Amino acid sequence: MKYFSSFRTTVNVSRYLFRTLALLFWALGALLSLFYIFSVLHQRESDLRQDYDTSFELAQGYFRHSSDIMRQLKYIAENRLDNGHQEGHQSLNEAFSVNPGETQFYPVYPNADCSRVEPQFQQSAESLSYFLNYWKDNFSDAYDLNRVFYISPDSQCLTHFSLRNAPVGMPAVPKSLQRQIIKYHNTRANDRGDYLYWVVPDSRPDSGYYYILTPVFVGNRLAALLAVELGIRLEDFASSSNLPIGITLLSDHNSPVMALTEGERRSSSLRVFPAEAGYFGYIDSFKDLVMKKGLAPATLSIVYSLPLNVVIDKYQSLIFVVLLLNLFSGLLLFVLTWLFERKMFAPAEKNALQLEENEQFNRKIVASAPVGICILRISDGANLISNELAHNYLSLLTFEDRQRIIHIICGQQVNFVDVMTSNNNNLQISFVHSRYRNENVAICVLVDVSARVRMEESLQEMAAAAEQASQAKSMFLATVSHELRTPLYGIIGNLDLIKTKVLPEGVDRFVSAMSNSSALLLSIISDILDFSKIESEQLKIEPRDFSPREVVNHLAGNYLPLVVKKRLALYCFIDPAVPVSLKGDPVRLQQVLSNLLNNAIKFTQGGCIMLSVCCDSHYLKFCIRDTGVGIKPRELMRLFDPFVQLASGGERQFQGTGLGLAICEKLVSLMDGDINVESETGLGSLFTIRLPLYKARFQPTVLNTDLYGRVCWLAIRNAALETYLTAMLEDNGLQVRRHGGESINAQDTFICDYDYPPTGTPRATVRFITHHIGHAEESMVGDWHMSSAFAEELPLVLLKIYRSDLAQPSLLTLPRPVNTEENADIQILVVDDHPINRRLLADQLSWLGYQAITANDGVDALNMISRHQIDIVLSDVNMPNMDGYELTRRIRSQGLSLPVVGVTANALAEEKQRCLDAGMDSCLPKPVTLEILEPALANYCQRIRLERHESLNY
């Protein structure tokens, strides 16, 4: 009976929870109603803002239209003041059939004498009078002009042209115009604006006159002042709305000039105005909803306003209906709750007497379960209830296992236990503690997990097999790398040596073709191996400090001849804010940028390629833009997939494996960056790479006193180049001016990107030539040629120009040719089992000036070292009898410290570390070209010569 009492308590608790739930539902409805009211008010606020914007567009259109009128009249007045027009003004005036009569002039100042007006000004005024009178109807109807004022340049006199009938008593010279003319002439020339705008109210507060005053220049000389008078009505600036929206026109001092707040709009009058130039919101303690905007190009502002209570009054009935609905919903929920409790909870109490029947029913469910279920008493482990399957499982357990299970259940340390039955089946027993018949029991579930155990063992075997397959793949990569690179080394190296010889006519073409094909084959093999290493997670990023500027300049110098050969233009823009150094892998970065630049050149038939570097938040961003064929939208989705080549018309137009962009994406991802592409068919593509600024070191721009304040005139047609040069020169303290035909002083510099002769005699002329290869050079005195790929060198060139005694910068020098005679004192031992590669490496060393002797394997090499004075050892790592690793260990064991450099065709990343662990000084990958071999040996030669010098001094 205790159980039945507990059940009744649960029913009572449920009843209270249900009542609470009904109350929560009503509160939720009330909150939704409140949210709806606020949403309606917010929507009304949005509609009102749209009305404001519509009205503002009317006002903005009026002022822009007025400015267009002024510009047209100014253009007409300039033509009338032009010498050529003055000579023929009489014939032009005769062409118009309308005679405006004699032009009258009115004094601006009280004592001005208007009887003597300059003939040129008088003739231009008469010509303008003929023109305006002829087009009088057009201007008055289309432009809503009242009068046009034409003022003498000395501001003594003016004449006006009435395009409409002026009201009675309207003065010939309005006082506001007189004040503005005096103000204009009292202002310094540098502080004068091109246009002056003001409004003078009429007798009605919502209408008046709008004036615009502007100077007219002819040949950089003030020839006249031109002003117009237009009628303005604030009623025209109000859209059709059923709300009494008020309109106020403000001056540039934020003071009201005109206002439309009379009649029904009186409630919209304002006492204060927002100080911001553009504002939308509530003011005066949320009393009024206003919008303020400037009326460009004028310096005036317009304010639209409406009281908040007018908006709320529109929704009084809605608020009342919502409150009524909330009261009705509360009453409905109360009735439904009462009915539900009567129909549901009352009968539930009667069901407590049926629990005994339910217990029997539950026993049947346990008996029919597909797993073993039993209830064990915790005190002694007795089996209280169990189905047949659980009984069979328990009977298969040994006595020791049953004791261990009971001990675990009593200890409550874990909630499951695994045991092995007598028939070698794996059994898992899960249990939970509970109460049954006022006793502490454990409900146990017994499951045969033999199949799962066997599956786990199978998965472990599969994992081991996968690991063996991965190791086999690594061995395959190493073997393929060695077997392919070794013969390629013989081909490329010998071709490299052949190029150094004088060849018969026509043979050089065949050699170049073979060299290009070998380089293409090496590139394809390298791409495949790199992709395989990335997929097998064997390619590692080797971060170190490097300069991104040096990487970009190196790439630009390498690809510039190819770009020029294809008649393209290469622009390289490095932002001054780019760090001088950061942490990363420059080799992999150069590989990615080289691939993208190579694709841009390959797919671009005309136009230019732009490489820009800048900082974007916490990233360094590289952008490569081209004007090539572009990429179709459906192909962008699979652009970075491996072995995918984009083609036109279903045919492959370009060579390659289709792995370049896939490798780029994976390398950028390994460097914690991202790569993105944007393209338009027929317009080109834009590839963007972002790399994090790890340990970036920035260096502020130091202003050079020799360049500070210097003037540079730019005549650049390329907008991107002009923007980059302007920002860079201004950062270095120079004054940048755009050349428009002005005469250039002798101390200024003229910079252009096309054959444009400067006016005057500048100190020097710097021309950016797209087909110029190399760094900046002075073709003749004062005439410099620069490549657009090295635009950042412009400050150094200017420094050279303004400091004639300065030594020539390093960027303007040519590379030093190799002096083969200075290496004759170094003897190098070449160890390789392949005769072709051995002979090739010896020939390369001989061409570089070194003394070279050869050995077939490690045993032969040790014999050579014992009989000859060897300075450096170049050894292959994979050889019969004794490989390069064992050879290095033998040399080190003899106490010899001579440099040992490994030469390997293995492309795996761990090969270099294996060479270093064996005692080698470094490792060179095959094929070894002269460009790789020369700098690699130069450091060791310098160390050897230094040791010889120290030993002689000792």
TrEMBL record:
One GO location term (cellular component): plasma membrane
Catalytic activity entry: ATP + protein L-histidine = ADP + protein N-phospho-L-histidine
GO MF annotation terms: ATP binding; phosphorelay sensor kinase activity
Chain positions with Phosphohistidine modification: 482
One GO term (biological process): regulation of DNA-templated transcription
Post-translational modification: Autophosphorylated. Activation probably requires a transfer of a phosphate group from a His in the transmitter domain to an Asp in the receiver domain.
Stored SUPFAM superfamilies: ATPase domain of HSP90 chaperone/DNA topoisomerase II/histidine kinase, CheY-like, Homodimeric domain of signal transducing histidine kinase
Subcellular compartments: Cell inner membrane
Name recorded for this polypeptide: Sensor histidine kinase RcsC
Native source organism of the sequence: Biostraticola tofi
Lineage summary: Bacteria, Pseudomonadati, Pseudomonadota, Gammaproteobacteria, Enterobacterales
